[in-house]
Design brief:
Layout: H1 3-23, H2 26-37, H3 54-57, E1 59-61, E2 74-81, E3 88-94, E4 98-101, E5 106-108, H4 111-123, E6 140-142, E7 152-158, E8 174-180, E9 188-193, E10 196-198, H5 201-213, H6 223-233
Parallel strand pairs: 6-8
Antiparallel strand pairs: 1-5, 2-3, 2-7, 3-4, 4-5, 7-8, 9-10
Amino acid sequence: MTPLRSFFLCSLVAACFIALYHILPLNIVQRLSSSMTSQPPQDSSSSKSKLAGFISRAELLPPSAFTPPPRTDIALIALLNGPVEYTGISLVLFTDHTLLSASGAYYKLAPTDYIALHALAQDITHRGTLPVPADSFRNTWRVKHERTGRPIDRFLVPKTALGAVPKEEYESEFYEVGIYGWDRERKVLETPVGQYTELAPPLHEMGAVVTEARVGADGPRNEESLKKARDILGNVF
């Protein structure tokens, strides 16, 4: 393209824009201008969770190191109710930054991962602003599936410092929220919960955390450590 032709094209574009400026309302012109220069919005849902890979970053402790901390140190309990494993432990998080996984492996979390996981546990329960599902047993959000019989992930966070002896009614000790049928891709709910038609992002992230903590649970487990954990959890199953 010759310089003269380029000059005429630029002049024509400028003239058209000036004409539009005088004809159209100002707010429309501003939107047209910004759309020509702005970048397309990014899909925030595609961003990777900062907790992804937290188990691989943790220090694996020897099985003999697991002497259950006092109940006052429990920060989060994640349980699994499923067709195969009805009363399974997915993880138990303690305030000393240690975590017992579904296989009975015992880890020391990186400080940043502990802070993030503890904050996430607070966000999905009493510190968060998530609505409560109507007429739902154990505050369970239900992800839509074609077939029934999906597992339920349960998350329990202490309301206050736990006593040394578990109470008969665990509901008086813990806040609880659950997810029926968590799936990495499926998020649409069977029934909307408040303004949510899909599983709330903090709950979806917590489901991913549990999935990572359950790696290895289908193989050999440290049943001794898991039994010790059950003894201090109380009547939560």
